[in-house]
Amino acid sequence: MYVRNKLIFMREKGWDAYIVSWFGDKILIPEFECYKELTFKEMTLTPMTLENKEVDYYIEKIIKMTNIKEKDEVIVESNTPVMAYWGEILAKKIAAKHIVYLLDERNDLLVSEKYLSFFYFKLKRRELAGINTKAIDLLFRRYRGYIADESAMLPAVCQNVVEDYDSKLMCNYSHERVNICVIGRLEKPFILPAAKAIEKITMTHLEDKFTVWFIGASDNGNTEIELVSLFANHENVELIITGYLFPIPRKLLKGMDYCISSAGSAGVAYREGIVTISIDAHDSQAIGILGYTTQNTLYRKEEPRQNIEKLLNKVMYENELNKYEFVPSDYKPDINSLEKHIAFLEESEKSKEYFNINELHSVKDDIKKNIIRFLGIRNYFMLKTDIHTKRRKKNKR
User: Is 56 helix (H, G, I), strand (E, B) or coil?
Assistant: First the structure.
């Protein structure tokens, strides 16, 4: 949602804006539809796993499809580690400014230690920021003793995702059941701990009937398989995995009794009046109950680490909320806060220098490169798809 908001913001500033991505199976956000031809599943791979001629092919294709001319002023922004490697190669090719704005809370889980030199290079040039200072701290926690300050953080406007409309999902909704939802991309580390906490609650309280909603999806479908397995044979549980959903129907969300989530997704439920347990992105344990014991959605500050199951049980069955006064959220998504991104850009290093991505090597990527060299890119993706399909079929049995 941040990318959609940034797209609109930059258009209003008079820029021609394009979105290059790897995910194009089903486009949910209308503003992205015109960029369908700029989706390349090959960009799920780091450029270090491909031959130089293959990397050049996709870079040249992007330049041609966006009609970039030699004298154009171009800003490249990348939002994931893998796209950052691609973005640096593209920026060097067209002499563009490249800003790496990492949207994930746990980039340290996504970046090999062998590749931190690239991100540190961008950081020192003030061309790297995250959604929170701790997200940057975690990335570099084992690298040169770096400690991030506020200059490495930018706001991500991404919570305007709920709208009033009729959804077929309401056919699966029942007021007679306890409705618990988890919102977020299903690859996020907190998803399975939250699911296991809910599963234990449902097993402890067999007298109740539950509908457990996961509003989100994973890129490879693996988490969905684990969730189905976790709740299999639970007669008092109906499991619903909505898949990627935009916008989220307000009527459905307001029908939830409880929500467990982290970061912006937790704020979404909280603002709709749902009892929401927020999860720390670092340790995947509960921060607290939004509006009652905490206002933090991403990382805890002074709050003690809490077991998700125990806190959920207190909220549901021990009248925990009666101990506190509810404080509603005063947060309102403001697209104009993206002006800080413009200021960040202007304060970054003026000289044009680029990291040589070809210098980056890891054992994992070297092995993958040899496999792709042997199979070819097309056969590599066909093999991956076949493996995932077989795994799903095996799980259904």
Answer: helix
